[in-house]
Amino acid sequence: QVRLVESGGGLVQPGGSLRLSCAASGIIFSINAMGWYRQAPGKQRERIAVETTGGDTNYADSVKGRFTISRDKAKNTVYLQMNSLKPEDTGVYYCNKDPPVVQLGREYWGQGTQVTVSS
User: What is the C-alpha separation between 10 and 19, in angstroms, rounded?
Assistant: First the structure.
């Protein structure tokens, strides 16, 4: 069974940085692309970063050049380095496979980690 535990969020001023972590169990990193997703207040969850099994990365235009996704296969952990944060980056951040895990007929998501960018 898959378990995803995100951490590292918090309150940060505009222009600041945060590094999010996601401990993933039950997912074989070597055969799955992994992504970070964000749900901003009042909006649907969207994928903002993905890393393929081959190490290629892709980012949403809104975070390109500021966020970096990486993974540690030995630790089964995915990271999201976020720099030059903006108020519009505020939201709950989740990691998941790409496409997301489905368990018992439904998409499975961890609890996410809250990021608030505000002065």
Answer: 10
Q: What are the tokens at 29?
A: 């990193």
- From first to last of its 119 residues, what are the pLDDT tens digits of the chain? 899 999 999 999 999 999 999 999 988 887 899 999 999 999 999 999 999 999 999 999 999 999 999 999 899 999 999 999 999 999 999 999 999 998 889 999 999 999 999 99
Our measurement of the distance from residue 113's CA atom to the centroid of its chain's CA atoms, rounded to an integer in Å, reads 9
Give the count of alpha carbons within 13 A of 8, CB side only.
18
Torsion, Cα of 78, 81, 87, 93 (10° steps):
0
